[in-house]
Design brief:
The protein is mainly beta and 112 residues long. The chain is built from no helices and nine strands. The strands form two sheets. The protein has a five-stranded antiparallel β-sheet, with no helix packed on it. Strands 6-7-8-9 form a four-stranded antiparallel β-sheet, with no helix packed on it. A hairpin with a 3-residue loop joins strand 8 and strand 9.
Length: 112
């Protein structure tokens, strides 16, 4: 489901086994320039914040326990039409997990 509150758009959905996060609920809080992702479910929760050219540090819950995570957002594209709640959001970011793994990622969510 998607709704607007206090100038932000919220998208809430249940993860599936396709994402590897079955049993978790994810909430995205979207503004034109930021994305806040909060995931709760078995084993705790995770919160990530994306804002262009900003670093964010957090703990990421994995099946093996929590890991330190650092994200550096490269860009955010928000094409979500609030009136009809259709469109999408894309975020490209660099991530480092506990200093052991680094990579470039792209998060893409389509709202229909």
């Amino acid at each position: 489901k998607a709704f607007e509150r206090n100038g932000a758009v919220y998208v809430v959905y249940d993860e599936s086994d396709v994402s590897g996060m079955d049993g978790c609920t994810t909430t995205l809080k979207l503004t034109q320039n930021t994305v806040k992702m909060k995931r709760i479910g078995e084993g705790g929760g995770t919160e990530l914040y994306f804002e262009k050219a900003k670093r964010f540090f957090s703990k990421y819950q994995t099946p093996y326990g929590p890991m330190e995570v650092e994200v550096l957002t490269k860009w955010i594209k928000n094409d979500l039409d609030v009136e009809c709640m259709k469109g999408g959001i894309e975020v490209e970011y660099d991530v480092s997990l506990g200093g052991m793994a680094e990579g470039k990622n792209r998060l893409k969510i389509d709202v229909m």
